[in-house]
Request: fold
Amino acid sequence: MRIRGTRRCPAVTNLVVFAFDAGTELREHHSLQPHLLQVLEGAVAVSVEGARVELQPRGLLHIESTIRHSVSAAAPASLLLTVLLIDSPGESHICLAD
Reply:
């Protein structure tokens, strides 16, 4: 697996593109922030608390913070990770232009 690029948008999101080689896995882990997983190419299997979800291109999955999950790819695939850098529930701290 390779990380192709990352971009941080102030106070809103952190974007990372992962490239998976065939047969690779991102072992079970959790995040301190809620996030979205979106398949760009290929397909991935996401295991979330014992449930398995197959994601195809344009497939989108929301995972709340502290939820343990893993990601695997049987064939080459790329995945966009969007980390949501907001406080939820409650007041948002998103910067808006005047």
About this structure: Residues 90-98 have pLDDT under 50 and may be disordered.
